[in-house]
Amino acid sequence: MKSYLRILGALVCLGIIVLLAIIFVPPQLTKPSEQLAADWKPATGQGEYAMRMADCAACHTAEGGKPFAGGRAIESPMGTIWATNITPDKETGIGNWSLDEFRAALVDGIAPGGKHLYPAMPYENYRNLSETDIRAMYDYFMNEVPAVNNAVEETALSFPFNQRWGIRLWNWVALGTSGFKPETDAIAADKQLARGAYLVQGPGHCASCHSPRNLIMAEGGTSSQDDGFLSGGVIGGWAAPDLRGANAPAQTWSAADLKAYLTTGRNAHTAVAGEMALAVKDSLQYMTDEDADAMVAYLHHIAKGERQTAPSIPDQSLSAPRQLDQATDATSLKLAKGVGLSEGELLYMDNCAACHLTNGKGAAEVFPAMSDNSLVVADEKAGLIETILYGAEMPSTAKRPEKLKMPGFAERLSDKDVAALASFLRQGWGNTAGAVTEADVRAVRK
Questions:
Q1: pLDDT of 327 above 80
Q2: What is this structure's pTM?
Q3: What is the DSSP letter of 310?
């Protein structure tokens, strides 16, 4: 018995020592992935471009707030995380940070003083950032961004997620090696594909939304060698669609359509909404043509199986009546006839058909099509419900400055109405998604 107690006591002591080491021993920080001259300086505009590709503004700028001054609420399964002030203000921002501390935050998720950042900061992806991009961004934030004194609300998650030392354990399990390396010889040998892979896996951090999360909430894949990589995820209750499946819209669209979607937020088939609208507004619209082509080429290169062809769209040279005359599917014909309509179909005709038309095709680059629309047919219903309730707005971009806005119907439609309308959208024009219930709508309505 005494031997057993001694062994148990020794294990307890060992556990306490390990725990104290995890909490108090400073973590090892990642060294630069490449050696640059001490006096290296970015070219004019290089730092701002690197920042745009990393999409820093989308999270670190609050709605109506000053650029990069923080205060934006990031919803997570663990609770609300408040984005920090990353202007060079010395009191409330990062003005006192050294280059090494800036790099540690980006690639290790560790702020000065050894404070672990929550993985809402996509350092799981930023570990792929090149040293030139890191140093260019550091120069940009320290020398070109105006300092803003803005004390941001402190993130206060409930136990045990408020114990930040636990993130160190998560990092040991979730993080791969630092530094970008093309995943295959074919990608490495092709300059365009290699650049596209870098943009997608590194600064673009596409996997942070478009890859599923595993049991410990780490990304279910870091490159195209992983089956889960870019196979679809969930963010804030919205579905981030699969980008690799042979029938995924990103794969069925032409290179020109995918490029238009990424850089303008719209194409002949659909338009952005939710978090993707922010990504286009603050980041993707600023891509050079070469980088946009590289990203599209890489995404098409990593398709799973043989890419399919996107559903046909009406000839936009024809008038709307002529386009409607060409419709042959059962849903379009029933709506055009206007007889024996269900509650959902009547609600569509009263509220939606003027823009999206009875054939559900809408208008290219203006009103998205309903058929096979990833938002409409997603397993996660919250995005569609939220759009019906509160509307959506396309971002204004350099190539497409029109700021088109869909109105919300929260005050006009009851929960029952929204459920009926959403269910019809998910089952009309060949869609086969499940119905929406009043309880689903209540959960989203604010």
A1: no
A2: 0.89
A3: P
